[in-house]
Amino acid sequence: MIEPSHYLSETVKGLKPSGIRKFFDLAASMEGVISLGVGEPDFVTPWAVREASILSLEQGHTSYTANAGLLELREVISDYLLKVSKQSYNPKEEILVTVGASQALDVALRAIVNPGDEVIVIEPSFVSYASLVSLAGGTPISLQTEGDMEFKLQPKELEKVITDKTKAIILCSPSNPTGTVLDKEELEGIAEIIEKHDLLVISDEIYAELTYDRDYTSFVSIEGMRERTILVSGFSKGFAMTGWRLGYIAAQPEFLGAMLKIHQYSMMCAPTMAQYAAIEAMKNGQEDVYFMKKSYRQRRNLFVNALNEMGLTCHVPGGAFYVFPSIKATNLTSEEFAEQLLIEEKVAVVPGNVFGDSGEGYIRCSYASSLEQLQEALKRMQRFIEKRV
Ligand code: PLP
């Protein structure tokens, strides 16, 4: 008999399992649960997009594509980025199609991190960032943001954690889990520090399509930032395509070439039928995106108002489909709140502490559920709160 743990990588042994899973597993074992825990659209991928993929199969497009992805797809991504991010990327050498934004983040980090390099992760953050930094051989440095400031990164706080080992920071606007969107002036403040300390930025813009109150500002559109930024995005959220596993990276040729090397050895290429679907999504999917966005916005307004009224205070999140209310009035920890709410009222939310220390005292609720489900969840939450405050 061998002892498997003796053979495992120390880095992998040191990774914490995602805190979100624990609650999903518990919720899945119960009946009648309303889940506000999942981070994905409740829409099915628009029909025309699915049809484009079916057609590609009918036509027999079942082989590998170019490592970087179908050139036609890279061309439509380039056109799209010009509109959304206000920057022009050469489809032949500055765009890479990946297996979701998840793989994009992984190759981006592996391409730039040397052992011992520090990468700043702004918390509360998407659960993968710190672990991906560790897997790339780097050291994740957590930088906490504050609920009172809508969890916005403050440039002077950023400067405090920069050392001579800092290689990069990971930005995410609109943010998972807080829904916070940074505007142009705020991004400019961050860019100043990035430039001053000669850092790189991985800008995770997966929720770019889902901003509700003002036009989206991409970090690469801030003066001087395009050359130092690896832009990560994808189709999962805005186009309701989580299961297709398709994302992309835009970056200057030398960064892209390095990431392409990793991608070609570890992945070969992204799934071919998904790439055909994505061409349709980007070429003709804008109306569907607009329709979904309008619906999220309506649900956000309803949900945020109701939470604030019942004493779970939260700022109005400008993007994504998450609300991150404070539960401090209940005197429960985030984990206690989530567990008791699930057991007593069968509503699943994610405890804020799984996204970093500054998430303690908060919960993440996704409002990508039907209006009826949201209303029922709110009723149950109200009942839960009344017993405690
Ligand atoms: N980045 C953020 C901030 C996310 O919230 C997610 C998914 O939840 C991802 C990346 C991964 O997206 P994908 O489905 O494209 O891998």
From TrEMBL:
UniProt EC number: 2.6.1.-
Cited InterPro entries: Aminotransferase_I/II_large, AspAT/PAT-like, NHTrfase_class1_PyrdxlP-BS, PyrdxlP-dep_Trfase, PyrdxlP-dep_Trfase_major, PyrdxlP-dep_Trfase_small
PROSITE patterns: AA_TRANSFER_CLASS_1
A single GO BP: amino acid metabolic process
Pfam family membership, one: Aminotran_1_2
Cofactor(s) this protein requires: pyridoxal 5'-phosphate
Keywords: Aminotransferase, Pyridoxal phosphate, Transferase
GO molecular function, one term: pyridoxal phosphate binding
Source organism superkingdom: Bacteria
Chain ranges of the Aminotransferase class I/classII large domain: 32-380
Family of the protein in this entry: Belongs to the class-I pyridoxal-phosphate-dependent aminotransferase family.
Protein's UniProt name: Aminotransferase
Organism, scientific name: Bacillus weihaiensis
Organismal lineage: Bacteria, Bacillati, Bacillota, Bacilli, Bacillales
